[in-house]
Design brief:
seven-stranded mixed sheet, 12 helices
Length: about 575
């Protein structure tokens, strides 16, 4: 039955690639079929920028009933490893996506080689014996035509013979390359006889071993791989705009029929206070400046996961920034806001004392313990309740007590002012005990037994509430306070080495923190909000004897004030 006057759900605006896809479906391009691919090179761990591409490639396929394949661009055995293949698959699955098939560029090595031979026979490719430096110089400039190689007009027979010697491993690495014969005066530098194949005999391939001695370059392998697989929309970032005509040229040399993959480009993701270069990240890892690819300060997907970011927070962040054709830099604060927004209703809220000082309630019965029933999260009743143990001796934050406090200090001080212990009673300080250095070791208080939270007397108002944990039952834990990896917004902007821009306070390790006993069974990956502290996650290195919590993000953006 129809319902009148019901408000319509607002339709989400299409990004420009979605608009292209919808138009292609409407026009029957490639018979209305939608097929994408995510094609990482397995030479490092994926980072947040790759997550943006993953959401585009897999998201388009999901939205338009197509398929998305995972294809590893494994054409350079010098830098690639199975370790990276495994990590990439894990990251994609963590983000919530499933690929239709897993392919490798190496699946097509024979087809690509056969195509190279075909181009040689057609006079469209030749073997060049010049060094990489000389070839680069001869390419000219965007305003000046390049210079033809002296080997450009070799006979087909000589080129075939030399290419076979390259293939058989008879030529040393770096001595020869196979180049496409296109146009050395073309205003697009990528058309100036691009390299198609180079020799690599020094490193076995992670899949094919030592079978191949020559390996295709990206520009030669990528478009053809798309074609072999049936990709309809080859989506990449803006730096590949100038490569697109060459992408099309190679396919046009052998493709038959109406089908063509089409390349489309969107803006890459740049974020403040970090680096997105695999090379620079690898430097940080190799030089021990971080604790590995999954260090929680790294912008890698595995690092963000270990830090406590959720797949939902990553998706929310990417939805917020969108896809355009304009390059820019996104404030890291928006990514942090996205995870705060997601965890606000998901994470149980618990008391955690990071800098504990002992507090004794002198008028509370010795040996007595109480169990308070408290909400896990006031914003999400579905999380239920937990038990919080209360007793005569507690730990409170050292900063919540001051012996000689100014008038605007509303926490504990022996001046008659009262505070509420979270979910418990109202107390007032009566004095303190210090060590030989003048440091407070024990705070003495008295409580009002008529002010228990949840009772009539518990409604009495005081100006401050402080957190606490019971001394005997609490969990002793290590807390790692992570902050931004770099101290400046753009570590690559100055002439200084980017490593000199590292934030010296990006990690502070705090031992012997005191956490509510309810967290004793917490498992790696469990999320919590430590009241007044921030959002935390149990680290993968936690053991029964040493529980470790990583700070995901503070409750507020402390960096906005510094800007």
């Amino acid at each position: 039955m129809a319902v009148d006057n019901m408000p319509e759900t607002p339709k989400k605006t299409l990004n420009f690639i979605e608009a292209i896809v919808e138009q292609d479906i409407k026009d029957g391009v490639n018979n209305g079929r939608i097929q994408t691919r995510f094609p990482p090179e397995p030479n490092g761990y994926l980072h947040i920028g790759h997550a943006k591409a993953i959401c585009m490639d897999f998201g388009i396929a999901q939205k338009y009933n197509g398929i998305c394949n995972l294809r590893f661009d494994d054409t350079n055995p010098v830098k690639e490893d199975v370790e990276y293949v495994d990590s990439i698959q894990e990251d994609i699955q963590w983000l919530g996506y499933k690929w239709a098939n897993v392919y490798y560029a190496s699946d097509y090595f024979q087809q690509l080689w056969d195509l190279a031979v075909r181009l040689i026979k057609e006079g469209k490719a030749y073997v060049d014996e010049q060094s990489a430096e000389v070839i680069a110089q001869q390419k000219g400039t965007p305003t000046q035509a390049g210079t033809e190689s002296p080997y450009r007009n070799r006979s087909v027979e000589e080129n075939l013979d030399l290419f076979m010697k390259m293939t058989n491993g008879e030529i040393e690495d770096g001595k020869m390359v196979l180049r496409a014969k296109i146009d050395m005066a073309n205003p697009n530098m990528h058309f100036r006889d691009p390299i198609m194949y180079r020799i690599i005999t020094s490193h076995p391939h992670h899949r094919t071993g030592n079978k191949w001695k020559v390996y295709p370059m990206y520009d030669f392998a990528h478009g053809q791989s798309d074609y072999f697989e049936g990709v309809t929309h080859s989506i990449c970032t803006l730096e590949f705009v100038v490569h697109r005509p060459l992408y099309d040229w190679f396919i046009d040399q052998f493709a038959e029929g109406d089908y063509r993959p089409r390349q489309y480009e969107f803006n890459r993701l740049n974020i403040t206070y970090t680096v997105m270069s695999k090379r620079k990240m690898l430097q940080l890892v190799k030089e021990g400046l971080v604790a590995g690819w999954d260090d929680p300060r790294m912008p890698t997907i595995c690092g963000l996961r270990r830090r406590g970011f959720t797949p939902e927070s990553i998706h929310s962040f990417i939805d917020k920034i969108g896809y355009t054709k304009v390059e820019g830099t996104i404030d890291l604060g928006l990514l942090e806001h996205s995870v705060r927004e997601d965890l606000k209703a998901k994470a149980p809220r618990v008391c955690a004392i990071l800098d504990p000082v002992r507090m004794v309630i002198t008028n509370y019965p010795e040996g007595q313990k109480e169990e308070f029933t408290v909400e896990e999260n006031a914003d999400n009743p579905e999380l239920g309740n937990r038990k919080q143990i209360f007793g005569r001796e507690l730990y409170i934050e050292r900063g919540d007590f001051m012996e000689d406090a100014p008038k605007d200090f509303y926490r504990l001080s022996p001046n008659g002012r009262e505070v509420r212990l979270k979910n418990a009673y109202i107390v007032k300080a009566t004095g303190c005990e210090k060590d030989a250095n003048g440091n407070v070791t024990t705070v003495y208080c008295e409580y009002d037994p008529e002010t228990k939270s949840g009772t009539e007397g518990g409604n009495r108002k005081v100006k401050s509430t402080i957190n606490w944990v019971e001394t005997e039952s609490c969990l002793k834990a290590e807390v790692r306070l992570y902050d931004r990896l770099f101290a400046v917004e753009d570590p690559s902007a100055s002439d200084e080495d980017f490593r000199s821009q590292l934030n010296p306070d990006s990690l502070k390790v705090v031992k012997n923190c005191c956490i509510e006993s309810a967290l004793k069974d917490a498992k790696p990956g469990d999320h919590f909000q430590f009241l007044k502290q921030g959002y935390f996650v149990v680290d993968k290195d936690s053991t029964a004897d040493n529980v470790i919590f990583n700070r995901t993000v503070s409750l507020k953006d402390n960096w906005a004030k510094k800007a």
